[in-house]
Amino acid sequence: MSSSALNILSGIAAAAAGFTGERAAKDGTIPGLNLAAIIPAMLGNKTGGTAGIIGTLASVAAKSGLLEKSKLVNLAGLAGSLISSGKAGTVNKAAGGIEGLAAAIAGNSGSGTDLGSIASLALTLANSVENKNGLTDMASELGTTLSGKFGVSFNGGGSAFKALDKAIGSDAKGKLFKTVLKSLT
Fold first, then answer.
1. pLDDT score at 49
2. Residue 115 and residue 88: Cα distance in Å, rounded?
3. What is the dihedral angle through the alpha carbons of 105, 109, 113, 118, rounded to the nearest 10 degrees?
């Protein structure tokens, strides 16, 4: 479950990048959205106490390079406490529009190829909107579709979103990433 949570979060990040016209790199990295820094920050500010300590330790580990791709199991475990997916079932990646994008995120393997195709699909959808408000509406619809059709939910609250502000700043990509997560609550 926890690795699928990390895959879902990375898929949402890839979609946010695609909405703003950026692509995921071949190795799966997404410019400006570093999950190794984002997830611990959100956990560290979520409830305090033990979660705060774990979040702080993970954040230090992320900044010092201890969370490498070969050690993503730790990060996946942290992601599992933030994102859950209640519905397992067939994922129709052939569906079009927002549903197809949501299906691609729900069925994401976490590979660079998958993240690249999610970003490309999001970019195609973004090109159909006329203004920035349309992108925000699209991101919200993506979150609603992930939640309703695939049972994806975000367990973070207001303090997790405040931590997101600090971890990713306020650029368009970060705002769209947050919009999708807010639609999952």
1. 41
2. 20
3. 0
Cα(116)–Cα(176) distance, integer angstroms: 17
Whole-structure pTM value: 0.81
CB 21 within 8 A of CB 131: no
Let me know how long the chain is.
Answer: 185
- Residue 28 contacts residue 112 (beta carbons within 8 Å): yes
The CB density around residue 24, as the number of other CB atoms within 10 Å, is 26
Cβ–Cβ < 8 Å for 155, 83:
yes
Beta carbons of 125 and 97 less than 8 angstroms apart: yes
Structure tokens at 79: 């992601």
Residue 68 has pLDDT above 80, yes or no: no
